[in-house]
């Protein structure tokens, strides 16, 4: 009932008030009022409590003042009331609870600000209200209950809802509070209770007292003596480990525990921990050092639970150890949490190290703090290599020089502003290579928003970048290619809507790409519609529609209007692109501008037509043959001439060539033609031949046939082209000409004989005329009266001289024609030269020309025809004199010298020179009106008959030199 | 025959014939002036000459040209042509030129022709 009253303060108040009033009324004393005041003190809080206290103080002050001011009865009454107020105050002091000492308390420690509970009410209920995450409620309730019933402190984590609705992890700590009341004596009074009492506390009374104090505070404590023998253990603890004192102290061997023996409590210690526990305890027992250790203890439930054990010695006045007291705290949750944390940390570390990323962290100032294993392996960097001497970040060894500045600036900016850091750069790797890497970092901030750490991750994006770059290049290249292709490339949707034109096509159509209001497809379709030639449009759309429906490739020629309004012929083709199912994804099309080609073809056809006409109309017989000579073409004129076409002479067993040749070539010419044509075919050399060709009427006509090979770029013969000219008339004319020439030659022969005879006659007639005239003169001198004998005599001498001269001419002519050497005798050339000079001296002086002779001394005599050589010299001298007639430099030089085995004689004039030096030696060549042109011819014959040579040269600046040589050794000739 | 001796000029490029004609004419009592070429004659002049005998085939001016030249200056001067070339002779005969002699010519006939030409 009392408990029920405790739970309902108003009821209690009413009860105590009723009792107090009853006491006052029955006793006639106000003391009864203490009961309700006590109740008020019990339950009043805050304002009510303060008011109560204030009332009591005012009442006390009032009674004191009354006692001091009023003597007698009032004073006694005031003192009596003051005593009542003082007693009430004492009761209040005793009853007002200290929160720390009252029952179980739960305190929540928050990360940011601990929430202080206020007002009346149960804390556990508060902790378990809606602010706790529903999942954590059972756990926290269980921990609180456990703490309450066992007194074992509990540490639990749970998620608590914040005002903003988010949850935060919060740690809940629950520990018991006890009132201290130690009554050691009472413990000895119940020897039957095996859980509580030692037979004798002995010297450990102080230790047991201390243990009891601890037990009152902590719920669990124990004491043992200086030898380690338990004298007290909190009964609940004994129950928990299911070991009574005697079990704990039981000796398990012969030896005392302190001497290394085993005690019963050791069995409750985890085998892995027992040795350490025992040895440390022995050590402490001996030294008196405090015993602090953690080990696992076996609970009655059969589980080992981690405990932290602390023991301290008690000493007597002389400092000897009288016993030990201690306690153990269940730290199993700590241990497990710690292990879990460690495991999680390890896991996290492994995770960080195995994540395929390079992870690092920096201090808030940007100084390197941590590098994961991977970043160190990959880049070869360590915290030291990326740290400048002042501790700041140095990226020099990690980043490509090209990116260093950018990276450092970006990083510095991020550190300064706290903005996330993100950069792509070339990172230097352990092997010295650079690879594209992306590094991102973000700042971790504390509650106040201050940066505490930078966490970063670097990811190798080299392959990505390379692929992207490659892809970009490929795309660019493809685009360029598509635009470069000298054709129009386009793409249609399966429905036939154009959705791509290449650059060339756009330019061709003159599309305005800046128009962005209408969709590309609409623009393209409109442009295409407008550009197609009206005459082709119907045909084209029908064909395209057909192809779109059937999926058949599109191919068509049509006209398309260029941006400048000119229609151009196009060759358009399109094929569908199908997916794996075979359905059409899109159509790819290609349009070729074939306008030039078509025009070219037209021009070519025109040119071919005109060429053919040319060939057909040329007044010549034209044919073509294959590389092996087989006829493949004959012009109209040739077909007309032969009277048959290409295939008309084909016969079995013979080639067309052989058949044709035998049919058309004159039998006399056939072998030659076959041989020459065969040679040309074999060697590729041009063929040219004159032969007779059979005309359609059977008449053979002379033709000249020429054939040459036509070769391709590699030089191979692709065709033989031939032409035949009719040369019948030419051949006839040539024959006539030849006849005429022959006649002429005969006539010329006759004429030259006549000329020669006339010449000889003249040569002979001159002296003969002189002889005859002299004879008449002589006769007259003799027939004078008196006869002039002197003149007659002189005249006769002349007659003899001239007659001899005539005879000599005749003899020379004979010698010339007989080519005799009879007249040769050894004579000196210089003498002959002087004679000839003397002969011509008169004529030279008449012409006022000097004759200069230069003869080398000691020339050998030669076997010569004196007269002939003299004639040659006279001839040359006369020629020279006559040549100089019209000129000013009047001197004729004759030079004679020996050159090796030859005597060389030169007659040099300063005349007009000779036009054709060799021609002058031909018979009947003369530049003189009265010359007969025999002189030089005869002279040359004479010199050559002497084994020498005679030729003419022109002088510089003018004139000509006639040179003849005579061999010094002419013995052989002489003998002959 | 008068005491005055007739002067006869002879032109021939052959010194032997010149010599022989000079001999023949002197033997007939003429004064002879010999010239190796037509040019030599024209240079000497025609004054005093009574008759001219010239070869046809000569370098420079030939006989025909000399005769034509002389005929312009002295139309009265008798000119005798002589030649060794019989082809010329045929042409001259065809032209019916009388005062013409072929080599070798008859000295007596020449002298007779000269005398006839110089007859007053």
Automatic annotation (TrEMBL), chain A:
InterPro entries: HATPase_C_sf (IPR036890), HATPase_dom (IPR003594), His_kinase_dom (IPR005467), HisK_dim/P_dom (IPR003661), HisK_dim/P_sf (IPR036097), PAC (IPR001610), PAS (IPR000014), PAS-assoc_C (IPR000700). Residues 759-970 form the Histidine kinase domain. It catalyses: ATP + protein L-histidine = ADP + protein N-phospho-L-histidine. Residues 291-343, 419-473, 554-606, 687-739 form the PAC domain. Its EC number is 2.7.13.3. One of its GO terms (molecular function) is phosphorelay sensor kinase activity. Keywords: Kinase, Membrane, Phosphoprotein, Transferase, Transmembrane, Transmembrane helix. It holds the Pfam family PAS_3. It comes from the Bacteria. NCBIfam families: sensory_box. This is histidine kinase. It comes from Bosea psychrotolerans.
TrEMBL record, chain B:
Residues 7-118 form the Response regulatory domain. Pfam families: Response_reg. Transmembrane segments: none annotated. The keyword rRNA-binding does not apply. It comes from the Bacteria. SMART domains: REC (SM00448). Gene3D superfamilies: 3.40.50.2300. One of its GO terms (biological process) is phosphorelay signal transduction system. The modification 4-aspartylphosphate is found at residue 55. Keywords: Phosphoprotein, Transcription, Transcription regulation. This is Response regulator receiver domain-containing protein.
């Amino acid at each position: 009932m009392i408990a029920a009253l405790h739970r309902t303060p108003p009821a209690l108040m009413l009860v105590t008030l009723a009792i107090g009033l009853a006491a006052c009324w029955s006793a006639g004393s106000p003391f009864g009022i203490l009961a309700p005041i006590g109740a008020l003190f019990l339950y009043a809080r805050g304002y009510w409590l303060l008011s109560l206290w204030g009332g009591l103080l005012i009442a006390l002050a009032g009674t004191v003042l009354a006692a001091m001011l009023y003597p007698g009865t009032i004073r006694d009454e005031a003192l009596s009331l003051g005593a009542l107020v003082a007693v009430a105050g004492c009761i209040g002091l005793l009853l007002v609870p200290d929160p720390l000492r009252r029952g179980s308390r739960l305190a929540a420690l928050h990360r940011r600000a601990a929430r202080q509970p206020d007002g009346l009410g149960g804390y556990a209920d508060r902790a378990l209200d809606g602010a706790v995450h529903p999942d954590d409620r059972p756990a926290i309730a269980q921990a609180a209950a456990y703490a309450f019933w066992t007194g074992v402190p509990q540490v639990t984590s749970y998620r608590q809802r914040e005002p903003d609705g988010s949850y935060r992890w919060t740690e809940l700590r629950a520990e018991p509070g006890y009132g201290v009341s130690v009554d050691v004596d009472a413990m000895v009074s119940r020897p039957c209770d095996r859980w509580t009492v030692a037979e004798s506390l002995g010297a450990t009374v102080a230790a047991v007292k201390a243990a009891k104090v601890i037990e009152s505070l902590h719920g669990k404590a124990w004491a043992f003596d200086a030898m380690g023998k338990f004298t007290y253990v909190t009964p609940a603890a004994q129950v928990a480990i299911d070991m009574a004192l005697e079990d704990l102290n039981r000796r398990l061997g012969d030896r005392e525990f302190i001497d290394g023996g085993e005690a019963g409590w050791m069995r409750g210690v985890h085998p892995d921990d027992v040795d350490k526990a025992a040895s440390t305890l022995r050590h402490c027992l001996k030294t008196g050092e405090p015993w602090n250790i953690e080990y696992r203890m076996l609970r009655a439930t059969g589980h080992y639970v981690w405990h932290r054990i602390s023991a301290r010695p008690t000493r007597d006045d002389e400092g000897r150890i009288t016993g030990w007291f201690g306690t153990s705290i269940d730290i199993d949750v700590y241990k497990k949490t710690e292990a879990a944390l460690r495991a999680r940390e390890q896991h996290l570390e492994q995770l960080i190290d195995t994540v395929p990323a390079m992870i690092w962290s920096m201090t808030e100032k940007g100084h390197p703090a941590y590098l994961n294993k991977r970043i160190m392996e990959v880049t070869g960097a360590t915290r030291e290599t990326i740290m400048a001497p002042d501790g700041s970040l140095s990226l020099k060894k990690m980043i490509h020089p090209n990116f260093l500045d950018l990276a450092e600036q970006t990083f510095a900016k991020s550190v300064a502003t706290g903005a996330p850091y993100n950069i792509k750069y070339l990172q230097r790797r352990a092997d010295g290579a650079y690879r594209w890497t992306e590094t991102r970092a973000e700042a971790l901030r504390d509650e106040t928003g201050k940066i505490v750490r930078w966490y970063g991750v670097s990811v190798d994006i080299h392959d990505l970048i390379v692929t992207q770059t490659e892809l970009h290049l490929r795309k660019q290249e493809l685009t360029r290619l598509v635009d470069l292709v000298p054709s129009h490339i386009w793409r249609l949707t399966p429905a036939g809507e154009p959705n791509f034109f290449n650059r060339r096509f756009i330019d061709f159509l003159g599309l305005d790409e800046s128009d962005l209001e209408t969709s590309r497809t609409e623009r393209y379709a409109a442009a295409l519609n407008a550009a197609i030639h009206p005459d082709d449009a119907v045909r084209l759309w029908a064909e395209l529609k057909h192809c779109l429906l059937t999926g058949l490739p599109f191919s068509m020629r049509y006209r398309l209007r260029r941006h400048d309004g000119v229609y151009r012929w196009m060759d358009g083709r399109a094929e569908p692109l199908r997916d794996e199912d075979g359905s059409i994804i899109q159509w790819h099309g290609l349009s070729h501008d074939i306008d030039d080609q078509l025009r070219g073809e037209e021009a070519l056809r025109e040119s071919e037509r005109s060429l053919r006409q040319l060939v057909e109309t040329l007044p010549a017989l034209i044919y073509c043959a294959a590389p092996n000579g087989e006829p493949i073409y004959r012009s109209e004129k040739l077909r007309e001439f032969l009277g048959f076409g290409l295939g008309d002479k084909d016969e079995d067993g013979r080639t067309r060539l052989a058949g044709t040749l035998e049919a058309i070539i004159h039998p006399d010419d056939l072998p030659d033609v076959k041989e020459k044509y065969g040679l040309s075919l074999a060697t590729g050399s041009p063929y040219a031949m004159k032969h007779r060709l059979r005309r359609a009427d059977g008449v053979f006509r002379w033709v000249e046939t020429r054939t040459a090979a036509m070769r391709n770029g590699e030089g191979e013969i692709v065709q033989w082209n031939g032409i035949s000219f009719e040369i019948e008339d030419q051949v006839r004319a040539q024959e006539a000409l030849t006849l005429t020439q022959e006649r002429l030659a005969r006539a010329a022969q006759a004429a030259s004989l006549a000329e020669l005879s006339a010449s000889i006659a003249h040569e002979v007639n001159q002296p003969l005329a002189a002889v005859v005239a002299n004879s008449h003169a002589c006769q007259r001198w003799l027939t004078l009266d008196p006869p002039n004998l002197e003149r007659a005599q002189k005249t006769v001498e002349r007659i003899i001289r001239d007659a001899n001269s005539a005879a000599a001419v005749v003899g020379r002519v004979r010698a010339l024609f007989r080519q005799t050497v009879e007249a040769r005798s050894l004579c000196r050339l210089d003498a002959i030269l002087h004679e000839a000079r003397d002969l011509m001296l008169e004529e030279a002086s008449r012409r006022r020309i000097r004759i200069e002779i230069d003869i080398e001394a000691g020339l050998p005599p030669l076997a010569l025809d004196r007269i002939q050589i003299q004639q040659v010299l006279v001839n040359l001298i006369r020629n020279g004199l006559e040549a100089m007639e019209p000129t000013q430099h009047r001197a004729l030089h004759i030079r004679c010298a020996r050159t090796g085995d030859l005597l060389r004689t030169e007659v040099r004039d300063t005349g007009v020179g000779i036009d054709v030096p060799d021609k002058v030696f031909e018979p009947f060549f003369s530049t003189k009106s009265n010359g007969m042109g025999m002189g030089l011819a005869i002279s040359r014959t004479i010199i050559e008959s002497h084994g020498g040579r005679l030729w003419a040269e022109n002088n510089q600046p003018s004139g000509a030199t006639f040179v003849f040589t005579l061999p010094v050794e002419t013995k052989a000739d002489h003998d002959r | 025959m008068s005491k005055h001796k007739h002067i006869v000029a002879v032109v021939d490029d052959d010194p032997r014939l010149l010599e022989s004609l000079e001999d023949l004419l002197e033997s007939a009592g003429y004064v002879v002036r010999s010239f190796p070429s037509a040019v030599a004659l024209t240079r000497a002049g025609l004054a005093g000459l009574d008759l001219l005998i010239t070869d046809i085939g000569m370098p420079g001016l030939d006989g025909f040209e000399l005769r034509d030249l002389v005929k312009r200056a002295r139309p009265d001067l008798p000119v005798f042509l002589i030649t060794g070339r019989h082809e010329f002779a045929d042409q001259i005969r065809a032209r019916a030129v009388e005062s013409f002699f072929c080599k070798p010519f008859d000295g007596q006939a020449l002298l007779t022709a000269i005398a006839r030409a110089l007859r007053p």
